[in-house]
Amino acid sequence: MRKGSYSVTATVYANGQEFTKSTTVTVAANHPSYQEYLLDAMVMYNDFGETTLVPMAVDQSDGGATLEIVNNPDNSLYPNRSAHCALFTKYNAQWANAYTKLPDGYRFDLTLQPVFKVLVYGKAGDKVLLKLENTDRGGNAWQTGTADLIYTIQEDNKWEIAEFNFTGVSAGWDWTGDIFTNDVTTDPNFNKDFYNVVRIMVNPGDNSGTFSVYLDDLAGPHVEGLK
Question: Domain of life here (predicted)?
Answer without folding.
Answer: Bacteria
